[in-house]
Amino acid sequence: MSLSDLSRTEMIARVTEGRDGSAMMAFASVLNRAEIEAVVDYVRAVFIAGDATNTRYHIPENGWDDHERYAPAFPFALGEIALDTPWEQLTPVQREGRQLFLTSCVTCHDRSKVIDEGELWDPRAVSFPRGGYSHKTAGERDSPDTGSEAGREIDAVSSATPFARHDVAPQVEGLTPQQQLGEQLFQANCAFCHGATATGRNWIGSFLQPHPRDLTDAEAMAGMDHQRLQQVIAEGLPGTTMPAWRGVLSSDEIDAVAAYVMRAFVPHSEKAQQ
User: Which of 47, 36, 43, 42 is CA-nearest to residue 13?
Assistant: First the structure.
């Protein structure tokens, strides 16, 4: 089914009730009927009938006045120039754009395009802004590399984010081979929402409604065992942002993730017995 085949009634039902087996949550408790209809009508008009691309973030209403002032960074954001291109191969304007990208754009655009996908550009599921980051702040600092006019438009460099510690995986001794596989799978997939610490207190987790379950909380995980956890991972939880993983991971991989979570995070059962 293509987007153009979706009826207005069906879209209203999906927004209202959510969609089982996916991360699409029910918004019935968040938005009223009129608000849901307004969202659906906007999506249908702009993105289906209008066939528009999602390029409406950089607008004045979102704090992006005169977005063209970031023009030197556009080739890096669009992947036209690799971010790790040797410095000496860049023109002065491109060097300015690279610095601008790394200071103002990299939080959302990530590494965009790079030549070497080495450890420096590890695509681990980590995404958060620095604490106090604001793209609305301009004119407060010179670029450390260029000192140029464009450099003075770069957002202020800020302190460490409070979310960062939740994207550092715990060191768990004595994991079995199965649990080691589960660790790799959890950190590569589940950590995006639950955080590497499984608390759900990472940046992405703080935005999801309802928040991802804190897998380290004794009350929230009361009664959880390996078999039940396997079922939740495989089938998801309707009405939440927890999707079904049975179409992504094999049964053995789901078993491994459950074994790791029970060992590393859940304060019951297998963890208590280790």
Answer: 36
H-helix segments, 131-225: 177-185, 191-194, 203-207
The label of the residue with tokens 């609305």 reads 136
Question: Do 257 and 249 form a contact (C-beta atoms < 8 A)?
Answer: yes
pLDDT of residue 155: 38
Tokens 């992504």, residue located: 248
The Cα 148–Cα 72 span in angstroms is 12
Give pTM, 2 decimals.
0.51
Residue reference for tokens 């955080």: 195
Per-residue pLDDT of 15-72, as tens digits, reads 998 887 676 778 888 889 999 999 999 888 877 887 655 556 777 766 777 888 889 9
Burial class for 152, CB neighbours closer than 10 Å (0-12, 13-18, 19+): middle
* CATH architecture for the domain at 166-273: Orthogonal Bundle (1.10)
User: Domain boundaries in the chain?
Assistant: 3-49, 60-153, 166-273
Q: Write out the two tokens for 54.
A: 């999602």
List the one residue out of 55, 95, 57 whose CA is nearest residue 75.
Answer: 95
Taking residue 224's Cβ as centre, other Cβ atoms within 10 Å add up to 20
- Distance separating alpha carbons of residues 98 and 89, to the nearest angstrom: 12
Any residues with CB less than 8 A from the CB of 248 and at least 6 apart, and which? 189
The stretches of 110-155 forming alpha helices (DSSP H) are none
